[in-house]
Amino acid sequence: MNPTTSRAPLNRPEPELLGQTVVVIGGSAGIGLETARRAREEGADVILTGRNPERLQRAALDVDPLSTAAFDANDSAALKGFFDGLAGPIDHVLITAGGPHYGPMLEMDSDQVRVAITDHAVLALEVARHIVGKIRPGGTLLLIGGTGGRRVRRELGIMPVATAVLPTFTSALALELAPIRVNLIAAGFVDSPLSASLLGDALDARRDELRATLPIGRVVRPADVAALAVHIMSNTALTGATYDIDGGQQFTSS
Amino acid sequence: MNPTTSRAPLNRPEPELLGQTVVVIGGSAGIGLETARRAREEGADVILTGRNPERLQRAALDVDPLSTAAFDANDSAALKGFFDGLAGPIDHVLITAGGPHYGPMLEMDSDQVRVAITDHAVLALEVARHIVGKIRPGGTLLLIGGTGGRRVRRELGIMPVATAVLPTFTSALALELAPIRVNLIAAGFVDSPLSASLLGDALDARRDELRATLPIGRVVRPADVAALAVHIMSNTALTGATYDIDGGQQFTSS
Amino acid sequence: MNPTTSRAPLNRPEPELLGQTVVVIGGSAGIGLETARRAREEGADVILTGRNPERLQRAALDVDPLSTAAFDANDSAALKGFFDGLAGPIDHVLITAGGPHYGPMLEMDSDQVRVAITDHAVLALEVARHIVGKIRPGGTLLLIGGTGGRRVRRELGIMPVATAVLPTFTSALALELAPIRVNLIAAGFVDSPLSASLLGDALDARRDELRATLPIGRVVRPADVAALAVHIMSNTALTGATYDIDGGQQFTSS
Amino acid sequence: MNPTTSRAPLNRPEPELLGQTVVVIGGSAGIGLETARRAREEGADVILTGRNPERLQRAALDVDPLSTAAFDANDSAALKGFFDGLAGPIDHVLITAGGPHYGPMLEMDSDQVRVAITDHAVLALEVARHIVGKIRPGGTLLLIGGTGGRRVRRELGIMPVATAVLPTFTSALALELAPIRVNLIAAGFVDSPLSASLLGDALDARRDELRATLPIGRVVRPADVAALAVHIMSNTALTGATYDIDGGQQFTSS
Asked: How many CB atoms sit inside 10 A of residue B204's CB?
């Protein structure tokens, strides 16, 4: 064994997304905004969408996007209008819109059940139909789901059912959209503005609990998820699969 | 080791479903009708429903049900009317209605996607809401799904996505409906009138292929599934789980 | 709807295992003994094995077996001797021998790790090699595993790893042994003499906890598992699959 | 929407592994060598091990490692000697050693079965015991498995059983080794020297088949896997999980 003198690194590869364009549906905060920032650092242009024009404007100051568009992703006409209006080809689309649904199934009506189980899939399919012909080879449609519903528990209600849909949906859509790649990120608790607004005063206690119980000893941040998202965009061998990022949370009781 | 002279059997236990009442939604043919027959043989009364009055009448001649009711299970008002009109408590409900949906997701509109992914769950939830207070302790709500969509394949389209919902849905509903038990049978190809009508002239070739490739060397029949269904009804330790019956088909390329 | 007058049951089918022979490896108590009793009630002859001759003798008084054999199933020569000495063909073999292994993997040596992960599979394969040519068509090799290790948790150590092996092993062996069927029962806590000896004074508290938390509201007993075992033996469409029996325990925190 | 003029990228982040040290067990070719190269490009020092001294020497010319060590990773004493001799702390260990085992289980003796099912886990545990106290916070132990055995098929023999062990093993070990992270890469066919030597003259036909059937339309290369490996090393929120990289192969019949 040789003595351990550090060596000069080899030449670093080009930025991962040089010359590419990334669309973030739900890009004004949290995971979406951090992914936009990371994509910009790796040489991409970004296009941000979000519901709230003010928040979107603040995000734009941060990441200098090619363009922004304020609309509700669940408004099918607005979504179509956005994609129809794109000036050029794109490479990747990240959808962060839509949170988990909780609550007992017996207390929901049939329409609520349908929406809770399928809303991510339905939105992803709408986007998928719009991007055929617009995404360049090697690009990916990237969805966000969670690891928190992998295990059925009484207090989660319908949530694990909705969770069960996404990995299989992702694989099936990857076969239909090929060679466009389709992948899913399954996150645990992420310390985002959304989490802060949902938890309110309970946020600090939740953070403390996770620091104490997670194998990684810290809370997962939006920038962690963003780094994974950009890797999935850049690694053109990945499709049809689910990538967990939860610091081991699914194996703890948190 | 003693010489092998066969012994007199111990006393046989009582019939498995003695004094119980089984409702079969979709009981005029195939798995539903065979389950009704088997339940009758095990001492149960049965109540049959089906869409087609003539077929239901013929089934009634076969199994001597307590009553029959002809209606479409997807008609919510009719379904409610049926359960409201039940004269006494029941013990088990088997839902056989509803087949798998195939086809590319990209070619379906959002409503079709929602229905294909959730129709079994939505119907099961409707039934679940009606039977609370009517099912005696130890009873079960029993659903039928399949093993054929366990693996995502291009030619199956949306089918594996719908398949992925049911096991988790069954577990989650079991927690909400407890102590009513909820279970799922996952069948492969079953040699039923439904299969015959779907396959037409291709039926014999399909049977031959399965005989040649299935580990059990024969085709699965409705009576096989019925025996499993009656066991799940009678075994009061089973809940929240999925019970495969496909002769090993999911591990072959058939 | 007709008035609800109970009908005379149809003729009951023959006993499920009439004229068949069931071998129970580990049949002197608990799940094994109850399966032997149930198989006898369904018309089968049984052959019991167990490590302890006195317990085996007491079990024999209970179920009147065709024969008994006292040996340690993990003694390969004794196991071979037992199967070589069988006087006639058999139909089903249930293996109950072998409990779960717990403990941190980092504190086990390599041999302990190998045994903990593979001992059920290795014993099943030994039995499998002995029964080829002895089991009649339609027969099954039936294994017992658990649902308690489905979820990885720190306090379970290696146990979930061993749990993960059995369902896939069962499917793979079913393909190799076909047309002999191979199936796995995955049980939760079962209120057996083994549980009593493991838990000691904590048994009553465990029972109380399970009664309070399980969806079925009671503890699973050996006779529940025995009924499932006999059903799997009799239902010749079942192979390569895993059948849960835990009263919903895997979805509770118990 | 603004006109699409490309923006200047934000400042690129530091190299991902700057100042870190990566040990590659099995680093003289294929995935291991490519991971070493990629890690060097991201600022890491690397330490390479391999069985063949000549190949290791050639690899060293390529990536300028801190040191190399030629030994068989399955030789426990040599493995211990290697880790005992490390001059300083390390950050990540990638184990590429060990290929899949095929063949019918019924034709293997018990020792062969044990080895085929557990050899990756046993080697990983040996390494795990050696690196405790040597890996800096945030580091990871990274294993390589496969997606090819996710589905049980007759011609794969024991392979799917061995495949089933690794994801659960990875999660369980991640809990024991925390805060050291443990992750698994599940690869499909990778166009490596190992594949070339296994397939011989059939290599080109296999490549053509994969190009025609994989959703990504090309064969997965060692550099693809290396990029994922380095991402997992750098993303300190990832632990206990399995990351697929197979171009969608698991959903095709290839």
From this structure: 10
